[in-house]
Amino acid sequence: MSWFDGTRVRTLRCQAGICVEDLAAAAGVSPNTVRAAESGRHQPHPRVAAALATALGVEIADLSTPCPILTLREVRARMGLTQTEMAARIGVARQMVSRVERGVGGVGAPTAWAAAYGLAAEQWKRAFRASRDVVRAKVTARTSRGESG
């Protein structure tokens, strides 16, 4: 699932009257990174998305596609955080964040996790279930095509 809206970045950049090279310089990334993000060829790293938002003078959420139920990964990415940074907020290993964002296993303190993701407990539970459902859908798609791990 993609959360980043490259078209929105292009629109904001054009409205500001700046070229790709100037946005890249302001964000501290290469012009090719900006082009790839705007075209939708690649989902940018959360730090790149945050840098683009800052350079454009908007919140990172302003660069995201509307989505009724986000996965935990999408919530974290919209915050501009890496798994390592989220793990530090919660006080767990990065691998634990990776597992939880895939909907694998449970957590001992869901309230702390919800707070770290900036969500109410019920919102966090919905995002966790959405995360699990995305992984399950991928596995189902692979097995129905006869692919293995």
User: How helical, in percent, are the residues?
Assistant: 55-70%
Distinct helical segment count: 9
Radius of gyration: 17 Å
Order of helices and strands: HHHHHHHHH
Give the distance, in angstroms, between the N- and C-terminal Cα atoms.
19 Å
Q: How many β-strand stretches? A: 0
Strand residue percentage = under 5%
Overall description:
By secondary structure, this protein is mostly helical. Helices cover 63% and strands 0% of the residues. It has 9 helices and no strands. It is globular and about 50 Å long. The mean pLDDT is 88.
Chart the SSEs and their pairings.
Blueprint (H helix, E strand, L loop, with lengths): L5 H11 L3 H8 L3 H9 L6 H11 L15 H8 L3 H8 L3 H8 L8 H7 L4 H24 L5
Helix pairs in contact: 1-3, 2-3, 2-4, 6-7, 8-9
Please outline what is shown here.
About 65% of the residues lie in helices and about 0% in strands.
Keywords for this structure?
9 helices; globular; mainly alpha; 149 residues
